[in-house]
Design brief:
Tetramer of two alpha and two beta subunits. 40% of the residues lie in helices and 19% in strands. It is α+β, with helices and mostly antiparallel strands. The structure holds 3,4-dihydroxyphenylalanine.
Length: 344
């Protein structure tokens, strides 16, 4: 029996030495060590042995088993190692390869200008408010002292959703919404950037959708000189210390008195050039002292409180600042245009 075991060991080791694949190795493991293998068979026959023989043969059988197992494990380990190496090689990353260039985006010039304007007013103690683009007639017109059939509505024809709901034509309704929200408390100091809509034909300076920034201040003793000082501070931060402003009388239903505000032309310093049509001035916004009726409708007693308001077109401010000649550039997503603002 001992000879049979030794022969078995020799045979197994020989077969194992010629093994070519993991599959073969597995097959051999089953063949020699499996339940139906010769080794199990020998062990099963041990019952027939004498008491002296049994431990000796048992020892030999165990040795044979151990020898075969060791070789199988070694081979198995080698296969695993090989497999890991193959995988590592397949997953290898060449860190010296040049990367794929990623396209760098830029903040849209309009967003940039809005942020700049916000920063300037936040620096003067304002907070930023927002309102809906789909607005009620009441907020867009009525509460701003533009009753139905008021002729001043003509200049601001809009896209109507129903008779009472429209795309807002101005950011001024946020004035009313803010007053309602503040319920008579002062001071109010807000600016409100946002999109507005008008039934306009698009050309180099007009668009059916554009961006405005509204400003509103309400407190006791707010005067016209406060408005003027605020706007001067604003344009000087925006366009440079040497910038001047000029106020011309105008009309808005929600302010009294109303003014139109010009800045000295940044292109020529006010001497006169093509941009300012030789006048030295550029109109940038409308403003005025909040009309008593508007204060009243917003819940503020005009005998106790006064305020000023202003509204500017952001595109125009941006066009003047960056020398952009056509408003449509802002909306057409042409990378050749947008890329010019990458580093500004
Ligand atoms: N909402 C006006 C417009 O779109 C601009 C404006 C003028 C706003 C005077 C104001 C203001 O707040 O006081 O033409």
């Amino acid at each position: 029996m001992k000879e049979r075991l030794e022969a078995l060991k020799l045979e197994a080791l020989q077969e194992l030495s010629g093994v070519q694949s993991q599959q073969e190795l597995n097959d051999l493991r089953i063949k020699y060590l499996g339940k139906k293998g010769p080794l199990t068979e020998v062990l099963r026959g041990m019952g027939a042995l004498s008491a002296e023989e049994r431990p000796v043969i048992g020892q030999v059988a165990n040795d044979v088993r151990a020898a075969i197992e060791t070789v199988i494990e070694e081979k198995q380990a080698a296969y695993q190692q090989q497999e890991t190496e193959t995988r590592l090689r397949a997953e290898m990353i060449d860190v010296t390869l040049p990367g794929r260039p990623s396209q760098q985006g830029a903040v849209h010039p309009l967003s940039k200008v809005i942020q700049e304007i916000e920063d300037i007013f936040i620096g003067m103690g304002y907070t930023v408010a927002e309102g809906p683009e789909v607005e009620q007639d009441y907020y867009n017109f009525e509460a701003l002292n533009l009753p139905k059939d008021h002729p001043a509505r003509d200049m601001q024809d809009s896209f109507y959703i129903t008779d009472e709901i429209l795309m807002r034509t101005q950011t001024s309704p946020v004035q009313v919404r803010t007053m309602e929200k503040r319920k008579g408390e002062v001071p109010i100091k807000i600016i409100c950037p946002g999109k507005v809509y008008r039934r306009d034909d698009d050309d180099a300076t007009h668009s059916h959708m554009f961006t405005q920034i509204e400003g509103l201040v309400i407190d006791r003793n707010v005067r016209m000189s406060d408005l003027k000082g605020t706007l001067l501070q604003f344009v000087q931060e925006m366009y440079g210390k040497e910038t001047r402003i000029r106020l011309r009388p105008s009309f808005f239903p929600f302010t009294e008195p109303s003014v139109e505000v010009d800045v000295s032309c940044a292109m020529c310093g006010g001497v006169g050039c093509r941009t300012c049509k030789q006048t030295g001035w550029l109109e940038i916004l409308g403003a005025g002292m909040v009309h008593p009726r508007v204060l009243e409708m917003g819940g503020y007693d005009p005998k106790e409180y006064t305020g000023f308001a202003f509204g500017m077109g952001v595109e125009r401010i941006a066009m003047l600042k960056y020398g952009i000649e056509d408003i449509r550039h802002f909306y057409t997503n042409d990378l050749r245009f947008l890329k010019q603002f990458l580093h500004l």
